[in-house]
Amino acid sequence: MALLLALAGCRHSGGTHAADTPASTANATATAITAITATAKEGTARMTVQQQHDEEIKRWEAWPIREGHSPERAWQGVLHILRTVPRFADITPEIAGPALGMPGQSLPPPLRGYSARIHPDWALYWALDERTSLPMVDVSVGHRPQMGAPYVDPAPVCDGPTDWPALREALEEMGFTTWGYMTDLNPYTYNDHYALSIALLPSSELKKLCIRRIKITPMPQKVRP
């Protein structure tokens, strides 16, 4: 989270509606990565847990809110990708970004994806990670850094129609009919081409289960064409 906030803060420091360009993004992020890598161990050793948390909050507060991005659009975008892209190997930032309603490539390789603070307390994020043996597309919403793991109602990012029952129905229409659960809030499912890991968060305010994260991976035998 600290690295993500630092990178995001460098990327968005120009203002809420500043334009993203590949050159400026790459240069700013590369500089941030170099600085963070060089000082992380030394700085962390000198800081208490509370001080580290305070630094994360400062980076969060300095990260401008970017309007126009919607978790609802992101969840619908995931469904669109699953419906229209037959192989994981065909998912690119140029396909994923527009489908998810966010820029297709705003971080330099090997980081491929986008993050934006969309609310005073919430951010929206997607990434395509092909650096592991099982690549993934990760789409999620996250709350501002917190000490511990207190419950936070996700109502601000769960006001669209795509809650858990609607998502499950749409997935089952596409052939995702085998379901398992890591916990009650962490279902997983698969079809012939994709495996999905889903994280849910209950909203007491809205009285429904909201979507916090969808992770798309290829079925192991479908990792490469």
Give me some keywords for this one.
seven-stranded antiparallel sheet, 225 residues, globular, 6 helices, single chain, 7 strands, 36% helix, alpha+beta
Summarize the structure in short.
With 225 residues, the protein is an alpha+beta fold. Helices cover 36% and strands 23% of the residues. The chain is built from six helices and seven strands; from the N terminus they run αααααβββαββββ.
Please explain how this structure is put together:
- Helices cover 36% and strands 23% of the residues.
- The protein is of the alpha+beta class and 225 residues long.
- Helix 1 runs antiparallel to helix 2, helix 1 (2-11) packs parallel to helix 3 (49-61) and helix 4 (71-84) crosses helix 5 (93-100).
- It is globular and about 50 Å long.
Topology:
Layout: H1 2-11, H2 22-46, H3 49-61, H4 71-84, H5 93-100, E1 113-119, E2 122-129, E3 136-143, H6 164-173, E4 178-181, E5 187-190, E6 194-203, E7 208-218
What is the helical fraction, as a range of percent? 25-40%
| Order of helix and strand elements from N to C terminus | HHHHHEEEHEEEE
How many whole angstroms does the radius of gyration measure? 18 Å
Give the terminus-to-terminus CA distance. Answer: 33 Å
Give the biggest beta sheet. Answer: 7 strands, antiparallel
Q: Strand-residue fraction?
A: 15-25%
- The SS-based structural class is alpha+beta
Q: Outline, from the CA principal axes?
A: globular
What is the strand tally? Answer: 7
| Physical arrangement of strands within the biggest beta sheet | 1-2-3-7-6-5-4
Indicate the low-confidence ranges by residue numbers. Answer: 6-41
Query: Averaging pLDDT over every residue, what do you get?
Result: 79
Q: DSSP helix count?
A: 6
| Quaternary organisation | single chain
